[in-house]
Design brief:
Radius of gyration: 19 Å
Strand order of the largest sheet: 2-8-7-4-5
Oligomer: single chain
Distance between the termini: 78 Å
CATH topology: Immunoglobulin-like
Number of helices: 1
Number of strands: 8
């Protein structure tokens, strides 16, 4: 009987862990120089290569403590990793911050992953960096 109770308890614990990791959702926001707040940008935002843009990924609710991976990718023939960092979130801090700067022109993507859960992809955002000289 005790063995059955331990087995059932283990199932509930594993189910709770799986549910807490599945469906982590949030939203990207971007802030350019001179902006006073982060703004959500629908579609694919475009930034000048000489511009520094701050970004934020804010989780919609509390998911407990997780190590969050941030991967910058550039589109070549395939997606190539440019930068890889990590950050921690918990019930008090539900935000991951980053900066887009010093990137050559091209198509990019930021992937947000749950490192604690085998780098499960949480969300991603594509963006374009262009050369300001191309505008003229």
């Amino acid at each position: 009987m005790i063995r059955v109770l331990k087995y059932i308890t283990m199932i509930f614990v594993l189910a709770a862990l799986a549910i807490s990791c599945v469906g982590m959702k949030g939203q990207f926001g971007f802030r350019r120089f001179g902006d006073d707040a982060y703004r959500r940008i629908d579609g694919v935002p475009e930034f000048a290569g000489d511009e520094q843009v701050s970004w934020v990924y804010a989780f919609k609710k509390k998911y407990g403590e997780h190590e969050i991976g941030v991967v910058y990718l550039k589109k070549e023939l395939v997606w190539v990793e440019v930068l890889n960092t990590s950050s921690r979130i918990d019930n008090a801090v539900r935000v991951v911050y980053g900066t887009i700067k010093d990137l050559p022109p091209g198509e990019y993507r930021i992937d947000i992953t749950d490192v604690s859960n085998d780098n499960l992809l949480i969300d991603s955002k594509d963006f374009i960096v262009y050369d300001r000289e191309d505008e003229e």
